[in-house]
Amino acid sequence: MSKTNQLIRIDANAREFTEVVRHRFAEWGAALSPAQFTRREERLISTDFYKNGGKTWALVNDTNEVLASCETDPIFLQHQSDRRPGLVIASVVVPTQQRKRGYASELLRGVIDAESGRNDFYFLVSEVGAQLYGALGFRACPLEIMSIAVNSNCDAGPSLRVLELNADETLRMLDIQSIRPGTILSPSREHIRWHWERTQIYHEFLGSAPLSCFGLSVGSNFLVLGYDFKFSKLMILSNQIAVDASSQDIQELWNATIKLARLHGLGSVEAWHARRLRSQIAHLENLNPQTSLSREDMPMILDLRKDLDPADIEIEYQCWV
Ligand SMILES: CC(C)(COP(=O)(O)OP(=O)(O)OC[C@H]1O[C@@H](n2cnc3c(N)ncnc32)[C@H](O)[C@@H]1OP(=O)(O)O)[C@@H](O)C(=O)NCCC(=O)NCCS
């Protein structure tokens, strides 16, 4: 850290918080007015998720001007019965006129240093490639985003059930599959509620259709889908598809997903880094040539303890922004 700059933790009442919100608005506020964006930030900061470990950090100079800021939130890596605490780093922003002077690096080095005793790993999805984080010791892992364009005229099969879920029902459905082998990076219940709150905020401000979360089930196979208001997309939040599920069941599930998106005027359905979904989606491509599928890679960045291999980690985190 340079002599004159200082790393501080700020809460919603701090003068610097207003400045941080202004910087975030300039980058990520497009859909909302400045007042709505400020309200969004105030509401998100008062969720249980944030209150139980969320922190806002700012790098300030000797006149208390904010040079860089970010947020950190708790996350866990579950490996069988071993639960490891980690930290998500998000909303890293440096005001335009202050960029390329090393402030983001200075901020992140300070935050990691301040938090190092408490966490086994750090995690983020980078919007700017691997360079900034690579220099800080992070490793980039490919993150696959699969988009299914909703362009086919398909009907849901007769055995389909579509349930609209509230936050509690979604959590219950996600619980069904929580006991699985492997090393899983997954959001906490408070984290999922945080997403609900954000969805609610966009819903209220943008007045979009009251779409929320859906469970689609065919036999014992199901998908949990959530609507992301920020990006107007239906996201696959979670799935449980039996290894021996018939291709007819899988096709029915996918057709229903696409139909649901069409019903709500959405252009695509997205799944992030859902490794287990990959083979089923490939299967769908063969079954339904009208469905167009695109894949995009984006670095997911992990800074892990040495005994964890990023290749072993399965991620159940689909809607991080
Ligand atoms: C990304 C951002 C935070 C970087 O801030 P900064 O203070 O300019 O970064 P630094 O000066 O500490 O740069 C550190 C390294 O990251 C690289 N870097 C910085 N911004 C970058 C960008 N937009 N794309 C790719 N690499 C970038 C720099 O080249 C530098 O590498 P070098 O030292 O080898 O030249 C800033 O550009 C910003 O606020 N962008 C908009 C918000 C955003 O996209 N945040 C997401 C972060 S995941």
What does this structure look like?
With 321 residues, this protein is an alpha+beta fold. It has two domains: 6-119, Aminopeptidase (3-Layer(aba) Sandwich), CATH 3.40.630.30; 145-315, Aminopeptidase (3-Layer(aba) Sandwich), CATH 3.40.630. The chain has nine helices and 14 strands. It has helices at 15-28, 34-45, 48-51, 103-115, 131-134, 167-176, 189-206, 247-263, 278-287, and strands spanning 6-10, 55-60, 66-79, 82-93, 121-125, 139-149, 161-165, 183-186, 213-218, 221-228, 233-240, 268-272, 292-304, 313-315. Strands 1, 2, 3, 4, 5, 6, 7, 8, 9, 10, 11, 12, 13 and 14 form a 14-stranded mixed beta sheet that branches. Strand 3 and strand 4 form a beta hairpin. Helix 2 runs antiparallel to helix 7 (189-206). It is globular. It starts with 5 loop residues before the first strand and ends in a 6-residue tail after the last strand. Residues 27, 68, 92-94, 99-105, 126-129, 131-132 line the site of coenzyme A.
Blueprint of the fold:
Elements: E1 6-10, H1 15-28, H2 34-45, H3 48-51, E2 55-60, E3 66-79, E4 82-93, H4 103-115, E5 121-125, H5 131-134, E6 139-149, E7 161-165, H6 167-176, E8 183-186, H7 189-206, E9 213-218, E10 221-228, E11 233-240, H8 247-263, E12 268-272, H9 278-287, E13 292-304, E14 313-315
Parallel strand pairs: 4-5, 8-14, 11-12
Antiparallel strand pairs: 1-2, 2-3, 3-4, 3-8, 5-13, 6-12, 6-13, 7-9, 9-10, 10-11
Helix pairs in contact: 1-2, 2-7, 8-9
This protein binds coenzyme A (COA).
